[in-house]
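Practice problem 4.
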């Protein structure tokens, strides 16, 4: 372990090793812990009014070292001007206060543990109202997965994540506020039927047997029946819960119906459900990186509704503005703008040459990808 010390930002020099993450107002990590600072990052710290940070004199041996030649670049003045000229802020991301997070987490756990409660539908409406306010009462239109993970318990966390992501997709798609609320409610409750599945099956670290998988596939029906028995839920919400695992090519469950028989809520929630499952670590699998998860969603046009896929793509940010990426041509670049519906193809500026690569709109960049 290296020696840790607090240093004034004005005394920082390229190549120093930062020993803390730097986040922006939304909680997004702008500078990661244990990287070698470059001049651009130091100027970013100064512009933020950050008076000092912790640095260390060596990297942890167990952490992979980043190439020094990539991190000690001092940006030429012309490159700085190009970055400033091309830079566009990312869309505002959804934020939830710690108080709201705590209430939503408590509410969803109550619902899972009290499916027979007389006030079940009232409690569900209160939880969905918290999320609706967070989504609709501001200009946020982007998904930040890191802000959605509010519980370590998978089922609860996943339910809240899917509710939030579904609402963002619905807002982007143009649904009314009431429809966004209903979609969020269905997203929150989509896995309620898992409360009737044995924990041994839910938390099994290995592959399920045929019998166990057959039982797991019943959870949409169990959830639908819970909501019907409790009463107070619209037919659209019931359909969203029942059909969130249906696929437009009839390969889904529990009924295996075609697109025209799947309610829009079910088709939308399916996108959010699959994406969050991909980026979440489970006992039987590691989490996929966001890029790979987005690519997998993009490849599922035969199973998922293309219109809701597009609304999802217009809401997710894979490479935040000001992050550093490497192109397949070997250039190290700063992300300066993201392109709606093409989250894997941002506009970037090479930190050495100052070349601008618009990976979406410039045909000459068609053969370039982010590594």
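Answer key:
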């Amino acid at each position: 372990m290296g020696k840790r010390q607090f240093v004034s930002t004005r005394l920082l020099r390229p190549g120093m090793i930062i020993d803390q993450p730097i986040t922006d107002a939304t909680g997004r990590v702008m500078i990661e812990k244990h990287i070698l600072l470059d001049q651009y990052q130091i100027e970013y710290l100064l512009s933020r009014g950050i008076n000092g940070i912790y640095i260390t004199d060596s990297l942890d041996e167990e952490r992979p070292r980043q190439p020094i030649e990539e991190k000690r670049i001092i940006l030429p003045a012309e490159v700085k001007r190009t970055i400033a000229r091309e830079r566009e802020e990312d869309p505002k991301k959804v934020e939830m206060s710690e108080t709201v997070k705590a209430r939503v987490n408590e509410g969803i756990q109550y619902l899972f543990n009290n499916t027979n409660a007389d006030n079940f539908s009232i409690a569900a409406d209160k939880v969905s109202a918290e999320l609706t306010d967070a989504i609709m009462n501001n200009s946020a239109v982007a998904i930040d997965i890191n802000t959605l993970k509010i519980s370590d318990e998978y089922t609860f966390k996943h339910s809240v994540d899917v509710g939030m992501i579904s609402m963002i997709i619905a807002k982007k798609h143009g649904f009314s506020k009431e429809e966004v609320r209903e979609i969020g409610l269905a997203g929150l409750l989509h896995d309620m039927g898992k409360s009737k599945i044995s924990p041994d099956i839910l938390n099994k670290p290995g592959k399920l047997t045929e019998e166990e998988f057959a039982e797991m596939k019943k959870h949409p029906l169990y959830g639908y029946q819970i909501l019907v028995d409790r009463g107070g839920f619209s037919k659209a919400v019931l359909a969203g819960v029942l059909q969130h695992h249906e696929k437009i090519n009839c390969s889904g469950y529990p009924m295996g119906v075609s697109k025209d028989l799947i309610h829009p809520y079910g088709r939308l929630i399916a996108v959010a459900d699959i994406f969050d499952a991909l980026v979440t670590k489970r006992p039987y699998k590691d989490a996929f990186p966001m890029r790979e998860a987005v690519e997998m969603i993009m490849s599922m046009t035969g199973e998922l509704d293309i219109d809701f896929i597009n609304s999802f793509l217009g809401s997710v940010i894979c490479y935040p503005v000001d992050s550093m990426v490497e192109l397949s041509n070997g250039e190290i670049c700063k992300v300066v703008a993201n392109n709606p519906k093409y989250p894997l193809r941002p506009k970037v500026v090479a930190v050495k040459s100052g070349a601008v690569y618009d990976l979406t709109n410039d045909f000459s960049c068609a053969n370039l990808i982010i590594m």
